[in-house]
Amino acid sequence: xxxxxxxxxxxxxxxxxxxxxxxxxxxxxxxxxxxxxxxxxxxxxxxxxxxxxxxxxxxxxxxxxxxxxxxxxxxxxxxxxxxxxxxxxxxxxxxxxxxxxxxxxxxxxxxxxxxxxxxxxxxxxxxxxxxxxxxxxxxxxxxxxxxxxxxxxxxxxxxxxxxxxxxxxxxxxxxxxxxxxx
Length: 182
Fold this sequence. Notes:
The chain is mainly alpha-helical. The chain contains 7 helices and no strands. The chain has one domain. It has helices spanning 3-11, 26-59, 64-92, 100-127, 134-159, 162-169, 172-177. It comes from Streptomyces reniochalinae.
């Protein structure tokens, strides 16, 4: 139905968590990373599943009503998953690195911001007319989704640096989610 929406989904990273710094204690950093990675894994799985459902609805020969319903549900699931990721980072506490508290607050703000933007996408899709202008409306949604994916890619790159990134790369649950694939 809408190739731009599918392309935007496939181009975006699923994790946005910008935490870098110099560690004072690698053991504590590893513990912190394990706590976060273990909590993020189920949320990232939900994001991937929701994105797959959205992409499938966009590619299949489905009615505008069916696409709208699938997209709305998918964006809601992604929004909820990012909120849960923000809670996971909050519950883990500040990473034991220089400026750890600042990094934690920044990550929580970013994750909640992305959750809000996915909720906005859901609202936009819910308002789309399912008539002749439906594909045009999806084009606008796809453009917004692409921007979200680029933000995620940039933050994922930041994650792969510093001691926190190294500690996360050692966690099996982060390996399973693709957090360390960059």
